[in-house]
Design brief:
Largest sheet: 2 strands, parallel
Oligomer: single chain
Strand order of the largest sheet: 1-2
Distance between the termini: 34 Å
Strand content: under 5%
Length: about 350
């Protein structure tokens, strides 16, 4: 029961983007007064160099449709079409979520470092969301982004949770996109849509966004010590588990690009783990057999809940509760697996060399 629900109209695409669930991108709000108090002086030299990169805006002309773009769009097999559209809707929601969050922070803080950073990041995410939405419009399935901003539920996160979650989402976004780009660079015959040509410079934006949050975290080392290590473990596992479960509902998408979903995910986890050594003092052992088995069990639980939801009635509700309980136990076991310690490097920033 891997199949995703087919999206057949712009209204359905917007409704899909509006849903808030364990597997769908969320919109966030935070404590703006606390964000205003962030101090980046301990990393000032690296910070100023990064801000000069944002100011230089080397992608200012990248997200433009070429004359060849529309000519490369072709009809896809139904299962691949459905999974690709699901991927695009999830991606546009994630990018627009960042745009909304960064804009709101920029509007509500006076700290010049944070205000400038958030404006630059919102600019980038707006371009990404708009570009993906154009690709959806080619199929008549564009998401109403203005309506989405007004109607999607917002989740409140403390600033430190924002730092952990956004750092990871930006870095894993880079790892996902660069892995796809490199694969299709080696095998251009598998590039079934032109949007993949834009992925390299696009994911370098994502990488730089993650660098920004890495500098914020390293400038505030209390966020990386003591009980906060437990939160880091939680967010690492949450991001990896969500990606694994979601990706395994899109087997045709990965197969079309020459991937197997599990192998693709663990390559992304490997890259993300290597990158996150710049800031996180703990790492998950993603090669541990129990970790791999646990992620697959979470996928089975998600599939079981979907079947129970489709069944409906009292029995369906009871089955959903049983699968949810099993998922919670599985997640707890994954969380308690041994982790690896990491000594943080003196220099924070890393080059996107993957």
């Amino acid at each position: 029961m891997n199949a995703v629900h087919a999206i057949t109209s712009a209204e359905e695409a917007t409704q899909k983007a509006r849903v808030s669930s364990m597997l769908s991108p969320r919109f966030y709000s935070t404590d703006y007064a606390a964000m205003d108090r962030i101090n980046v002086e301990p990393v000032r030299q690296e910070w100023d160099a990064m801000m000069a990169e944002y100011e230089g805006d080397n992608n200012h002309d990248h997200f433009q449709r070429t004359a060849e773009f529309a000519a490369e769009i072709k009809t896809l097999p139904p299962a691949l079409h459905d999974e690709f559209i699901d991927f695009l809707v999830s991606s546009v929601t994630s990018e627009f979520s960042g745009c909304v969050l960064y804009n709101e922070i920029a509007k509500n803080v006076s700290n010049p470092d944070i205000k400038a950073l958030m404006r630059f990041m919102a600019r980038d995410e707006s371009r990404h969301a708009g570009f993906i939405n154009q690709a959806l419009r080619d199929y008549g399935l564009g998401v109403d982004l203005g309506g989405l901003k007004r109607t999607k539920a917002y989740t409140y996160f403390k600033p430190k949770y924002i730092f952990y979650a956004v750092y990871l989402s930006e870095k894993i976004g880079y790892a996902r996109y660069i892995t796809i780009f490199r694969q299709l660079e080696r095998h251009p015959e598998l590039r079934f849509h032109p949007i993949f040509r834009w992925f390299e410079r696009w994911c370098n934006d994502e990488y730089r966004h993650g660098e920004s949050f890495a500098l914020i975290l390293r400038a505030n080392p209390h966020l990386l010590r003591g009980g906060n290590k437990l939160w880091i473990r939680f967010f690492l596992l949450a991001v990896y588990a969500t990606m694994y479960v979601r990706d395994h509902t899109r087997p045709q998408l990965h197969e079309a690009m020459g991937f197997e979903s599990t192998a693709y995910d663990f390559e992304v986890f490997r890259i993300t783990t290597e990158i996150s050594k710049q800031v996180f003092p703990v790492m998950l052992d993603t090669d541990h057999p129990s970790f791999r088995a646990g992620l697959h069990r979470l996928f089975e639980c998600a599939q079981g809940m979907e079947r129970a939801k489709a069944q409906g009635g009292v029995m369906g509700m009871l089955k959903r509760g049983g699968w949810a309980a099993l998922a919670a136990v599985t997640y707890a076991r994954l969380y308690l697996l041994p982790t690896k310690s990491n000594e943080l490097p003196v220099q924070v920033r890393m080059a996107p060399t993957w």
